[in-house]
């Protein structure tokens, strides 16, 4: 209960799965835009997933060290209190407009060092800095904060799970993915056992689904059986996602008549998944 | 802006220019010539990939066959018995995890001990609780 109070009423979630190439960043981008456009939520995306800044690229924003005016990595440092008290508009300076509704705080090169520095912080204080940032600096401005977390078990990822608790896990079918469902639960349980956090699966989203293959159909059926309450509608594989990602937008920025039928279907799936996710988060 | 602004601004800008290699956790000892135990502990503390990759077409074919015929499970069982540990799944990854340990135990058993000590050292340095 204390934790819910600390969040100051803001809705939060994170995309997290300890596996690359499952559509994590794409999911974060599309869910954030759906929340902003379909639900009229002031939505903030935070990219903590690495310094490649894939989320910024997804929205056609070019990021380098120079263009980052105020880095998110500062939030994890010992001096954040002094910085936030000394610079009135520091949070505003962190953000970039995606042009599709959500606002983005990109990753910055200091996140690796921030991860290391957190190892020197006493354990009882190590993981609450992002949670404090969300409650104190973001809750008054934003309705929904979605964090794209690193696909590994580092101090930044654990801080993210501590701060938001609710996890969106995209999964894709593939030859080496048979144990994904077991691994997903096992990874979260390991984190619950080892750290003072209690992440909960809020949504499992089957992505890159090719209905022509038996493997894909079985994969979707497995997910629905394992997670009947939180399985999202399948996001079908479509050339549109990659093409528009390269062009710097989500599918939501494209006119309906320019999308393939698979693109329209994927767009609808992200919309429905976002409806479902927000309903879960509000429970 | 308050009087603190210049200091705060400087601290803010420092955050993005810090590098991981310049900020090794203070409680991790780095020796001039690290032992295997130290090197393993350091590896846990850094963001190494958790994957080991083997590119070997013959082994890939053999393991595909083992999986297809259901014989992989017997291999996993035998390797787990050899290591005196419970198996954790029936996948090719589980088979390889166990078989690599069996092989290391055969040809270089001291490395497995160093691995276990390195893990322990890392855990202690992180002050994790169980």
UniProtKB/TrEMBL annotation, chain A:
Segments forming a coiled coil: none
Family matches, as Gene3D superfamilies: P-loop containing nucleotide triphosphate hydrolases
Highest taxon in the source lineage: Archaea
Residue intervals of the AAA domain: 14-194
Pfam families linked to this entry: AAA_31
UniProt name for this protein: Chromosome partitioning protein
Species of origin: Halohasta litchfieldiae
UniProtKB/TrEMBL annotation, chain B:
InterPro entries xrefs: DUF8115
Compositional bias ranges of the Acidic residues kind: 1-10
Domain DUF8115: 1-126
Highest taxon listed in the record's lineage: Archaea
Family matches, as Pfam families: DUF8115 (PF26424)
Residue ranges, annotated region (Disordered): 1-28
Protein name listed in UniProt: DUF8115 domain-containing protein
Organism: Halohasta litchfieldiae
Lineage per the UniProt record: Archaea, Methanobacteriati, Methanobacteriota, Stenosarchaea group, Halobacteria
